[in-house]
Amino acid sequence: NAGVTQTPKFQVLKTGQSMTLQCAQDMNHNSMYWYRQDPGMGLRLIYYSASEGTTDKGEVPNGYNVSRLNKREFSLRLESAAPSQTSVYFCASSEDQGRRTDTQYFGPGTRLTVL
Amino acid sequence: GDSVTQMEGPVTLSEEAFLTINCTYTATGYPSLFWYVQYPGEGLQLLLKATKADDKGSNKGFEATYRKETTSFHLEKGSVQVSDSAVYFCALSASTYSGNTPLVFGKGTRLSVIA
């Protein structure tokens, strides 16, 4: 049981390049999330998916797109990377979309640098 | 909107010292409250949680009590160890727009414990 896995672990891009961050979970969870972590800012929600086939914007969605490929996988795409997107990106999952008591389980993160 | 405020760090303590990290929140309705911990180079993991007023969450010697009257969820540990060095995040889950329960995080408090 690997939990939440993310690839790649590290990535360096040039301004304007595109890339996709991959996330998968093996806990049969319904809900999945993408966060970014910046120094002094805590974690901020980019997008989330309450269930397979649905996605919604979070606090900071601009410049990103997501795809919930199936129940296990939730990808985050940067179409045209900008230096302001330099950050550490975390994927998370939780069991049930409707329960505020649910624990979220986090992946190890992707450290992205945009030059 | 919902928000979490936690004490700014970094906090540096000697081994076996008493730890308190303050956390207060603003939320509509009845939030669940969480403490997550992030060890160096890793993703976040749940440390403890409380889902209703006066509940006490506890794990690994850490405790926090959900105080509705003071809107607080302070983290405490009686005797810290070097292995407790990490970043600690207070978070809440309350809003249920679109049927989901995204977490709102504080900015994190870095704890360093020296031998």
Q: What percent strand of chain B?
A: over 45%
Low-confidence stretches of chain A: none
Order of helices and strands of chain A: EEEEEEEEEEE
Taken from the alpha-carbon principal axes, the silhouette of chain A is globular
Protein architecture, described:
The complex is a heterodimer of chains A (115) and B (115). In chain A, the strands form two sheets. In chain A, strands 2, 4, 5, 6, 9, 10 and 11 form a seven-stranded mixed sheet that branches. The mean pLDDT of chain A is 92. Chain A is built from no helices and eleven strands. Chain A has 115 residues and is an all-beta fold. Chain B has strands at 3-6, 11-14, 19-21, 23-26, 32-38, 44-50, 56-59, 62-65, 75-77, 86-93, 104-105, 109-114. In chain B, strands 2, 5, 6, 10, 11 and 12 form a six-stranded mixed sheet that branches. Chain B has a four-stranded antiparallel sheet with strand order 3-9-8-7, with no helix packed on it. In chain B, 39% of the residues are buried. The model of chain B has no long low-confidence stretch (mean pLDDT 91). The A-B interface holds A 4, 31, 33, 40-45, 48, 50, 56, 58, 90, 92, 94, 97-109 and B 4, 31-32, 34, 36, 41-46, 49, 51, 89, 93-94, 96, 98-103, 105-108.
